[in-house]
Structures are given as C-alpha cells and as structure tokens.
Amino acid sequence: MEKTISKIKYIKNLLETKQVSCIELTNKYLESIETENKILNAYVKTTEEIAIATAKSVDDKISKREKLKPLEGIPMTLKDNISTKDVETTCCSRMLKGYIPIYDATVWSILKGQNAVLLGKTNMDEFAMGSSCETSCFGGAINPHNSKYVAGGSSGGVASAVGGNIAVYGLGSDTGGSIRQPASFCGLVGLKPTYGAISRYGLIAYASSLEQIGPIAKTVEDTALVYDSLSIYDTKDATSQGNKGQTAEGILKNSIKGIKIGIVEEYFEGVRSDIKESINDAIKVYEDLGAEIIHFKIPQLKYSLPVYYIIACAEASSNLGRYDGIRYGYKSSSYDDINDMICKTRSGGFGKEVQRRILLGTYVLSAGYYDDYYKKAQKLRGSIVKAFREAFDFCDVILAPTVPKTAFELNYTSINPIETYMTDICTVAVNIAGLPAVSVPCGLDNKGLPIGMQIIGNIFDDAKILNVAYKYEQQSRNNIYKDIKMGVSL
Questions:
Q1: Is 451 in a helix, a strand, or coil?
Q2: In angstroms, how far is CA 414 from the centroid of its own chain?
Q3: Which SS3 state, helix, strand or coil, does residue 116 take?
Q4: Is the pLDDT of residue 223 over 70?
Q5: Catalytic residue among 160, 178, 199, 240, which?
Q6: For this structure, is 154 an active site residue?
Q7: pLDDT at position 68 over 80
Q8: Beta strands in 38-168, from DSSP E residues, in sequence order
Q9: How far is the C-alpha of 101 from the C-alpha of 82, rounded, in Å?
Q10: 414 is annotated as an active-site residue
C-alpha cells in the first residue's frame, strides 16, 4: 500500500472484497496490542469484547452484501478522557480510577453507530495537562520511532498507537496543541478542528473554552474522512455548530494554484534551525504548486503563551472543583472532618502537574488578582482573535512549525517544566482564537525523529486546510513518512 493512500479506504476495500473478515482483522490488532503495548504503553485499557462483537456485526452486513459506512469495521481507539458508557474512563488520573460513565460522548455515539471497532482507551497526560504524556498515572506512552523518546502530549497514547500500527486512527483532544504536538512527534497527521465543529459532549472538561476533540491518523485523507463523519451539530453541546464549511473529502484534491499562504515571522522565533529548514523546503513545494507566499507579522502572538496558561489554569481550577471525594472516584480513607477529607482526597488523587495548574488557576481568579491576571488575559485574547481575523483578510491559510523542536527524551519534562511549557508556543494561539489547524509531517531530524508543520485556517475553513495539507503530502510523500516495523502490516 502506498503511504499516502487512505489506510481507512484500503482496509474497507479488503473487508468488502472479503480478502479479510472483520473478525480476522480485529484479532490481528488485538494480538499486536498484546505484544507492542509492552513497549509503547499506548493503551491503558483494551475492549476485546466490544471489538469482537462489533466485528461480528460488520461481517454479518458484508455477508448480506449491505453497503458499509465510511468508518465501519475500522479498528480505532479513543483517548481516555472521552466518555464511554460501561467502559472505565480514568483521564489517566488516580482520581478517576474505577469511574464507569453512564453515557457515551457524542463522538463515540456517532462512531458506534457506524460500527467502528473500538480496540481500547489510550494513554494521556493526567486530565490532558502536559506535553509529554508522562504525567499519566499509568506511566507515559512511548514514541514508536525511538523508544528513548516520548510520544508527546497530551494525546500521546493515540499517537503512539496509530504510529505503532496498533490502531488505524484515534480521537484525541486539543486544549493547547495536544493533538498536533504528538502527531508531530510521531510523524502523523493531527487535526484540531474549529471550536464548535465537533461536539465536546462527553469530553471530560479541562479548559472548556479552549479544547476540541479531533482525529490523529496516518494520512490527510484518513483525517478528512473522520472529520467529515464527526462534524455534526449536537444539541447536547451548547457550543456545537457542526461543520459550517465544506465537506473535507469533497475538496481534498482541488488545485491550490493562486492560494495565499501567510508566513508569520513570530512563529519562527526560537525554532530549531533544522525545523526552519524543513518548513522552508515545504514553502518551496507550495510555490511550485502555484501558491503565493506572503510574509507578515502578528506582534500579539508574543502574548499567547501567558494568556493561554492563565485562561487554561483558571478554567481547570473551576472544572476540577467537582472532584471532592463525594461525587466521583478516589476518596481518602482517613480524615478528621469534611474539610480534611476534601483536602486529603484532592492532594492524594491529583498528580503534581494537575495540582500546580489548579493552584495557578485559583490564584489568578482570587480577589485582588482577578483584574491583574484573568481579566487582562481575556482582553489580550480578544486582541489575538482580532489579529488573526485581520490576517485572514489578505491570506487564505498560515503555515508555521507545529513545535520548535522534535520529540523530548524520556523524563525531560520533569527536569525542565518551564522549558516544556515554552514548546507550546506555536500551538496555543490557535486554541485561544478557536481556529482549525492541522499538523502534517514535513521531514526528519538527524536522529530520524519526525518534524511537523501546521497549517492554520480561518474559522470553519477546516476543509481548506486539509486540502492544502493533502496537496503537500502528495508532492512530498517520499520524504516525510518513515515506515515503522511494528504492529499490524496489511
């Protein structure tokens, strides 16, 4: 199979032509998970019974010659902060160990309705707070390109599973880059959709005004297929709008001749030289495809990192207030009174990174500091949104690095927490402004680790950025993907 041909379409063809049954396919993936997960630590829970039952339903449909839906019978995974009825959902936190949701997240309801084969729930930074996946109470997920490096965060388990060929695609969540950064580290395509395009109902909340569910897949076409299936208006999510733009797969192959690609100077400050070089090579590819390159500045971007951490931590301190030992999960076994119980429960249930962000958030919301921090951050958020809106008056998309460096070595973030926060510099502005962005591989560093670039679009231009990403992928397929010799080979 060619690397940039849709893996989803390829597998669907194998099923429909009976070259492999869905049961055989599912068993191949489950057997590979049993072997490879000992190295990757991508899955924190497997769901064999659900997967096999779904596979039998798909084989029944095929035997009756019924047409399969776009994602029917395709083995996939969900990040462990997406609610799955009757299946443990922990957010990879001691606080939620043993928590069994009584309802499905809308994204899983849609996929379940398509007979998607759920292989299991995947690893993540605790409550999606982190950039390496190492704050998980299960230990971090490993990069399939090199086991000495992290898969990235917070959706590192999804990226590790898809990159290691033990899932065809997966859904993660992106609050400040948590889909795009691990996709970049693992040489995959990761889409953070427009805020409101995909329902967040059933996503366990971290920072509600910033986060979105989105796909991580092997190719742009697979990413577009998943996006089209999930971008539906949902009455259960007050912020849901569905896809107000075009169908992504429908325009994927359109010419991009004459399209205006913006290059923002601030996105390249502090970026490693080999990553700048890979982005410059990508720019040349786009020029050859007939795109017009426009260089300009967005000075407000320098505020994006502090604005992001103030707003995200403030919302986290509010959202995580519900974990008090009374209603959910972990509860301290010994205490003197209710105040002591809540204090001991939260101290024992949350990890250090989550505690740090709750404390920061509580501080910026407290009397005497609210105006100085939170209110000021919200004003600056408005100026960043305005700056992007003005930029899209004269360019169609913006091209930028996804991360200023390639994957971290294991344990790097515990030694360099502030430096790790700084690596979010290229991704957080998109969440602040609610824009869509897709990370696509654009090269390898001298250690063979993937380099990613992101294409950012205006609100509801999700299909347009996937079209621009697809055209680059088609031109550069031999230079940007690297075969991983593990997992299922079809």
A1: strand
A2: 22
A3: coil
A4: yes
A5: 178
A6: yes
A7: yes
A8: 43-46, 75-79, 117-122
A9: 10
A10: no
Catalytic pick from 109, 132, 154, 160? 154
- pLDDT at residue number 5: 77
**Predicted confidence (pLDDT) per residue in 14-63, tens digit:** 999 999 999 999 999 999 999 999 999 999 999 999 999 999 999 999 99
Among 213, 226, 215, 158, smallest CA distance to 9 is for: 226
Amino acid in the structure at residue 400: A
Name the catalytic one among 7, 12, 61, 79: 79
Residues 6+ apart with CB under 8 A from 67: none
φ, ψ at 70 (rounded to 5°): -55, -35
Amino acid at 68: L
DSSP state of 371: I
Determine which helix (DSSP H) or strand (DSSP E) holds 398, and give its type and residue range: strand 397-401
The reported pTM is 0.96
3 state SS of 298? coil
| Token pair 């889409």: residue | 191
Q: How far apart are CA 400 and CA 453, in angstroms?
A: 6
SS3 category, 104: coil
**Percentage of the chain surpassing pLDDT 70?**
99
Tell me the pLDDT tens digit for each residue of 152-200: 989 999 999 999 999 999 999 999 999 999 999 999 999 999 999 999 9
Residue reference for tokens 């995947």: 122
With left for phi above 0 and alpha for psi between -120 and 50, is residue 293 left, alpha or beta? beta
Q: Which of 185, 248, 256 is nearest to 222 (CA)?
A: 248
Q: Strand order of the sheet with strand 397-401?
A: 43-46, 117-122, 75-79, 169-174, 212-217, 189-192, 437-444, 450-457, 397-401, 260-264, 292-296
Confidence of residue 254 (pLDDT cuts 50, 70, 90): very high
Task: Strands of 281-378 (E only): list them.
Answer: 292-296
Which residues sit opposite 376 in a β-bridge? none
User: Active site includes 405?
Assistant: no
Task: Give the integer Cα–Cα distance in Å for 117 and 470.
Answer: 26
